[in-house]
Amino acid sequence: MTEPYDLITMGRIGVDIYPLQTGVPLAQVETFGKFLGGSATNVAVAAARLGRRSAVISRTGRDPFGDYIHQALRDFGVDDRWVSAVDAYPTPVTFCEIFPPDDFPLYFYRRPKAPDLVIHPGELDMEAIAAARIFWITGTGLCEEPSRGATLAALEARDRRGITVFDLDWRPMFWGGEGGASGDGGASGAAAMASARPYYEAALKHVTVAVGNVDEAEVATGLRDPKACAQALLDMGVELAVIKQGPKGVLAVHRDGRTAEVPPTPVEVVNGLGAGDSFGGSLCHGLLSGWELEPMMRYANAAGALVASRLACSSAMPTADEVEAFLADR
C-alpha cells in the first residue's frame, strides 16, 4: 500500500449544473455552468486545496458525465482510483436556483438509482480505509443498500483508528421509507427521521467526530437544542461534536470538556451551497494540524464563508493562502 492518505471520503458524487444567473427562477435561466459535485466529493476537494492528500470512494455512470468527473477530480488533485463505473445507472446531476442570501433550492436527478448508492462492501480497500489519517462518511451513504452495508462495514473495519468523521448530511428526499431512498416525497419528515435514526445510531458507535447542523443533529439525537445535541452525540460515543448553527455560528464540544462557540464570518452571500463542504474540508485540515477548537472553528467558518461568496462549490474551494488572507482582513 502507498503512504496513508490524509483523508478518504465516501459518498455522493455527481455533476452540478448551476445557473450563471442569480435571482432567476430555474424555468427562466438560459445559461448554466457544469461543476464537479457531491458532498463527500466536495469535502475531498476542499482538503486537497489546502494541501492534503485526499481520495474519494464513490461510483459514477459509464457515460460522458462520469468521464468528466474523473478528469475534474484529477485536476483538483484528488485521487480517483476508487471511483468506479456502474453500467446500469446514469451519473447523477443536480440543479439549483440561486436566490441570495438564503434561498438555494436543490433539484436532485438520481433516477432510477444513483451509482454512489451501489458501493458494495467487497469492493472496498479496507486496508487503505483503516490506514487513512481521516475517514469521512455521510448520512446519505446510509439511506439505501448496498451503500448502507458498505459504509457500516468500512466503519467496522476501521475500528475507530485515527479520526473518523460522520457528516450527518440529512437529505430527507433520499429517505422515502423503510426500503430506503424513494425520493418522491415518500414518508413525512418525522417518519423519514424515524427510518434513518437506527442507521445513524449504528454509525455513531464507530466514529470519533460528528458534524452537522441542528436539523441533521436532530435526526441522530431527537433533540434540537445545539448544546443538548452536542452532549447527546458525546454520550453516543463521539469525541468531538460540531453543531453548525447558521447565523448563530458554530458550536464545538469535546469529550475532554473543551468547548468553543464561534460566530459566523460576515460575507456577502452569492451561493450558500458548498459552504458546509468547505467547512468540512477545513475541519479535517485543522484536525490533522492539531489545532485548538476555537482557531479551528474560525478557520473552517472563514473557508465556508469564502465559498458562500462565490458561485460554484468544488471550484470555489479556497486555498490556505486565501483563507489566511481572508481572516487577516477580519
Automatic annotation (TrEMBL):
- State if Metal-binding is listed as a keyword: no
Cross-referenced InterPro entries, in alphabetical order?
A: Myo_inos_IolC, Myo_inos_IolC-like_sf, PfkB_Carbo_kinase, PfkB_dom, Ribokinase-like
Please list the residue ranges annotated as the Carbohydrate kinase PfkB domain: 10-319
- Domain of life of the native organism: Bacteria
A Pfam family cross-referenced in the UniProt record is PfkB
Q: Which UniProt keywords apply?
A: ATP-binding, Kinase, Nucleotide-binding, Transferase
* Key word Nucleotide-binding present: yes
Family membership noted in the UniProt record:
Belongs to the carbohydrate kinase PfkB family.
Q: What is this protein called?
A: 5-dehydro-2-deoxygluconokinase
Print the organism lineage. Bacteria, Bacillati, Actinomycetota, Actinomycetes, Kitasatosporales
